[in-house]
Every structure is written in structure tokens, then in C-alpha cells.
Amino acid sequence: MITNYKNLLFLALLGLGGLSSCNKQLDINTDPTRPASVSPDLVLPAGTGNVAFVMGAPFNILGNFFAQHWTESLTANQYKDYDRYRIGQTTNDREYQTLFTGGLKNFRFVMDRAKGDSSNYAAIAGLQSAYTYQVLADGFDKIPFTEALRGAANTQPKFDDGQVVYDGLITLIDESLAKINTSSTAVSVGGQDLVFSGDMNKWRRFGNTLKLKIYLRQIYARQAVAEAGIRALYAGGAQFLGATEDAQVTGFSNATQNGNPLYLADVNPSSGIANNIIASKTSTDYLANTNDPRIDDFFSRPGSTATVPNTTAAHVGTPQGDAIRGASGAISTRSRPNLQKIAGVASPVVLMSGAESLFLQAEAALRGLAGAATPRALYEAGIQASFAHFGRTVPTGFLSSTGIAFNGGSSAGFSEARLEQIITQKWVALNGTEGFEAWTELRRTKYPSFITGTPYSDLPNRTYAKRLIYPFTETSRNANAPAVQSAEVPVWWDKK
């Protein structure tokens, strides 16, 4: 698989090229060049930029393939390995290194230096660190955590078990939330915060939502821990991200190399790897069968271009992995990730959406852990938030239609059928924008149940991928790296 993203350094996209020294040495086991003369207000957006690049392009692409929102174009080769679930020690090397050294290392720099009235910088960096560590742990399982980021003081950090990482993330979030300063003397973060523009109340809700996600992720592995943590959140009056409070990076444009990372990877003709991604029939069939108008938000119709959408052609999804069997068909005859709203030059990179927050709350309510909150109301609010993200309102009768209406009404207790409804609509809402999360929730819950491996899967029993593989650069340099597991081996919380 080609992994060259045509020099898509997100720091340059954001006009922060002067900070590139922070990210030149991509080796988490050695001490990279530290930006000693650079202040935290410049390093914070650099860290956010690196994380947004990974979550907006390579991990978003991987996740949308594994969640069967997307598949490989019939005239291309770039992502055929994803349709085969063929993952090796070089597949995600760059992403692993970038998240540690470009993201976490910069966040640690900010956390170490932003004190007193500048503590909001440290709070934001800590919360983004927790988000990034969870992505790494959910993908690779055991990761360096308690001994990570010590540079020359420890070039062989141990790999911590997932439970240790998850418990540490809750502590990290709590410590970060405690640093939020809303007094009149607090230094405003403002535009240096690429996610919420310095709105610390939104960051507080982000932290609570991230904690809710962390607890639900381990519901099948450590039920008592998960349930106690969720109950404590609600007992403490925690507020979560609202319907319109998407944690996302915006500000992309047509300026040279300033486009959305997915646009630069798969749409921009100068990328060298454009025109690889088309719509999976798994996704288009579900949207068509439920008469969901969001199909036109998630996908551009055949014949569309980046500047002129085709509004008349019927959508055409392609069976997952058809490119492997040698099927033919020009990309112009297939639906593609929406060329204006998903892969548009100015499309946002979504880290955590308001819709995702509401579906997390709906699951907590379904499990009886959210006080008086009702799962039906939160489920429907999640769907409405997904529509609103694309500037669309829910059509009359849609929420009561076949396949969408909440099973059992507002008084229904827990059932697997209702859980599958919630997770399936979350899967729909994450289409195109949060592919990594869609794949992760598929692994945790096994929903939507209609998603299986493909006849072209390289994995035993034609299953789908359950983890990512440690990169060779890590296993060859760190004697404490665990033995490499195959992609069909579940991560620690995958117990259902």
C-alpha cells in the first residue's frame, strides 16, 4: 500500500511551518528536538494540527473502509489492502509516530509550561492528550503511557495494559478539567484553540463526554467499573456536548496545501493518490432502504465533481472489495464520499460530534445509568443532530418510520434490539467524518449486525480487522514492545 500523502503536513496547512522542528524526528523512543524558544500558545495548535491530520485522512479512511462506509475504486489500488483487512507493521507507522511525537509530545510541552493564569492552555492540551491516547489504545491495544514522553530519560518505555491506560485517562481528564480557569484573570486561548476557540465551557463538556465514551468502551470488559463511572458522572451533574457542539477543526480553504486532509489525499489532482474511494454498497443500501435523505450528504452522486454536483443520477454503491475480484467501472459511474461536505476542500475534520455525544448518552440511558434521561429522546436527538450537522432538518414522519422508530417506545428497558438501533444510527451519523470511531464501535458492540468480513478478507473465517499492528519502527527500537498480534486478535475491551 502506498503511504505517501504528498507531503500533507498539517502544520504547514495551518501556517505553522515555523514549528516543523517539533515534528522532524518521528521516533517516540528518543528525545525529539524540543521547541525551547516557542511558547505554548504556538505549540498547542501544532499538536491539534497533527492529530487532526491523522483523524481527518489516514485513520478516517481506514475506519470508513473497515466500517464499510467506503470501498476501493474499481480503477485504483491504493486501499485494496483495507478491503482485504491486510494490516502489517508498516501500514500505520506514520500515524503512530505522528500521534505520539506530533500530537502528544506537543501537548506535553504545553502542559508542562502553561501555568497560573495560562492554565487553560494546559487544560486543553490535557484533554486532547486523553483523546489521542484513547485513539492509540483502541487501535493498538497496549501502548506506552505511564513511561511515555520522557525523552532521553527513558528511551525504552514499557507498554501498559489497556486497563491501566484507561484508568490513567480518567485521571488525566479530571486533572485537566480542574485546570479550567474561567475567572477574569485567565489568559484567553482564543484562536490558538483550533477546536472551540477558547470556549472552556465546551471543553468541560468535551471532557465529560470523553469520560462517558471511555466508560462505555469497557462495558463488556469491566462492567462494574464502567457502570460506577457513568453513574458518578450523572450523580455529579456532568454536562455533555450538545447537538451543535461538534469538536472539529475548521478553517480549510483553496489556498495552496490548506485544504481538508481528505480532500488533499483523495480529491486534489496533485496529491498523486486521488480517486481511490467510492461508496460501499453496505452503506448506500441501508440508507436507501430506510429512505434516509442523508445519503446525499454522505455521498456525491455518480458524475459529480469537486465543483459541480450531479443531482439527478441515482446513487450507486459498490460491494465491499469488488476491486479485488477485478470488477470494472469508472469512478464517474459510482457514488463517492461527498465532494463538498465530506471530502470538500473546506470540509471540517470532526474529532467528536454532537451526534456522537447524544448517542453515547442514549446508550447510557438504555442501560439505566443516566438517571431520569430516556433513551428514546436521546436517540432521536442524536439523529436530529446528525441531520443538523449538514444543515438539514428531519423530514416529517422519519423518526416514526420503519427501521427508524425506536423499538418499544419511550418506556422500553434494555434490549439488544434497542441497543442495535442506537449503535446503527450512530454508525450512520459517523459516516465519512468519524470513520475510526465507527469501526471501533463495530468492534465493541458487533453492531450493525449486517456488517461482516468479506469474501476477500485475509483473516481467518473471513472476519474483519480487530486491531492495528505495532509498526516495525517501534518493535525494532523498543525492547519492551509486546509481541506483534495478528489483526484478528481483539483488543482488551473487545469481549462481547
Automatic annotation (TrEMBL):
Annotated InterPro entries: SusD-like_2 (IPR041662), TPR-like_helical_dom_sf (IPR011990)
One Pfam family linked to the record: SusD-like_2
The keyword Iron-sulfur is assigned to this record: no
Record keywords, A-Z: Lipoprotein
Gene3D superfamilies: 1.25.40.390
Lineage: superkingdom: Bacteria
Protein name: SusD/RagB family nutrient-binding outer membrane lipoprotein
Annotated organism of origin: Hymenobacter properus
